[in-house]
Amino acid sequence: MDWKRLAYCGIASLIGLPPIAQAANIDELVTAAKAEGQLTVIAVSHDWCGYGALIQGFKDKYGLTVNELNPNAGSGEELATIKANMDNKGPQAPDVIDIGLVFGPTAKQDDLLQPYKVQTWNEIPGVVKDPDGYWYGDYYGVLAFIVNKDIVTKSPSDWSDLLDPAYRKSVSIPADPRTANNAILSIYAAGLATGAQPGAEAAKAGLAFYRKLKDAGNLVAGFGTASSIAKGETPITTRWDFNGITYNQNFKGNPPLDTLVPTSVTVAGVYAQAISKYAPHPNAAKLWMEYLYSDEGQSGFLKGLCHPIRFDAMRKSGKITDEMMAKLPQTGSNLVFPELGHLVEASDVIAKEWTTTVGAGSK
Fold first, then answer.
1. What are the GO cellular component annotations (predicted)?
2. What ranges in the chain are assigned the alpha helix state H?
3. What number of other Cβ atoms are within 10 A of residue 182's Cβ?
């Protein structure tokens, strides 16, 4: 795959620690983080990208408590949580966020983030990071159809198949497109599949496609969560490939799931890390970043069936082996890595027009 230091905020001084800008000395950062004693994360479900094992590994390695908020929050909800807790140093204020790439510039523009560059900064591709270190990509997944085989006998192979009358009351959007990265990219990919140009045009075409699904009676009102898929309430949904494989493992064949990459076009969804400007535990937040972007952390994402953002550098250096590669989902040759500018355009259109154009699934 060819992917086309600022000072610490000063809270450390309140607990008698020297301010830490960049982690030139990891030992000093560890000491400062341990003095804070805790890290608060949000929107990191244990079955998402290997986060369960990553959180446990971080706790075991550094002895910090990890406070976990709203594991199923969408990216927009994460930003709202920072805004709601600007003056709160208690357990409801997140230190770090894991957001869809398109939400990084928004969070920076809203002055919600503080910059920090990890030691492996140079191995993060430039197109998926803010040059000043306010946010940076950490992994990506590939958009796929997740199908409950107890309900759907013949799985769809491409976007146009979803309009088949056989899928009446069967197709869902994965989450609220006004706030959730996977839903935004579902609409965007559907638009690209119509032949629309990247950016706002693809967003509008995707909205029109989902309107057709609704008019045909194929689009259901609920969102495609793991629970609703298992219950048969949303037999076909779009989610990341790693979601489908993990769900299938967790369900243990009850129900059996298909995870299928659309044949014409699909998209890679890059997620990004960032530290809240108002983080109650800024040193713990920086240590978490160092952990996630280390070989250990990036390999943890790989074990969670996600493609780590340092993939190219780690593959080149032999840290990602052929054996490890064989366990990853197969992405095919139709994968598009959307440009950030196009995603910003598309997400703006989708957020403004989803309810009036489609409306289904808006709770």
1. outer membrane-bounded periplasmic space
2. 26-36, 51-62, 75-84, 103-109, 181-193, 200-215, 226-231, 241-251, 282-292, 295-303, 311-316, 322-326, 340-357
3. 23
Pairwise CA distance, residues 90 & 279, whole Å:
10
Residues 95 and 118 in one domain: yes
Helical residues (DSSP H) of 70-143, grouped into ranges: 75-84, 103-109
User: Do 214 and 342 lie in a common domain?
Assistant: yes
Residues 20, 12 contacting (CB under 8 angstroms): yes
Range of the domain at 57: 11-140+269-326
Task: Give tens-digit pLDDT for 72-114.
Answer: 999 999 999 999 999 999 999 999 999 999 999 999 999 999 9
| Residue 124 sits in the same domain as residue 151 | no
| pTM score | 0.87
Residue recorded with tokens 């620690």: 17
- Are residues 285 and 243 part of one domain? no
For residues 274 and 99, is the Cβ–Cβ distance under 8 A? yes
What is the spatial distance between Cα 262 and Cα 248, in angstroms, rounded to a whole number?
A: 18
177, 170, 260, 266: which is closest to 214 by C-alpha?
A: 170
**66 and 80 co-located in one domain:** yes
CB 281 within 8 A of CB 39: yes
